[in-house]
Design brief:
This protein is of the alpha+beta class. The chain has one domain. The chain contains one helix and four strands, in the order E-E-E-E-H. A four-stranded antiparallel sheet has the order 1-2-3-4. A hairpin with a 4-residue loop joins strand 2 and strand 3.
Length: 65
């Protein structure tokens, strides 16, 4: 599902196949997990939601300090 979009890989993705990619467009941010199926479904969110996600403070996962 490229549709001419430019997909960018997370800087946290490493050689072991942990690939989170995003493709920004003016009205939608497309997010996909490309390690198993790069042409599979995408999560689509608004730029406002994406900005809020990026600016949210990181919290440890439950059970982790």
């Amino acid at each position: 599902m490229s549709n001419g979009m430019t997909w960018l890989k997370s800087s946290y993705s490493v050689g072991e196949g942990e690939c989170l990619e995003m493709a920004p467009t003016p009205t939608t941010i497309h997010i996909r997990d490309s390690k198993l199926n790069p042409t599979g479904p995408t999560l689509q969110i608004s730029p406002t939601t994406w900005t809020a996600f990026l600016s949210a403070p990181a919290r440890p996962a439950p059970g982790r300090a």
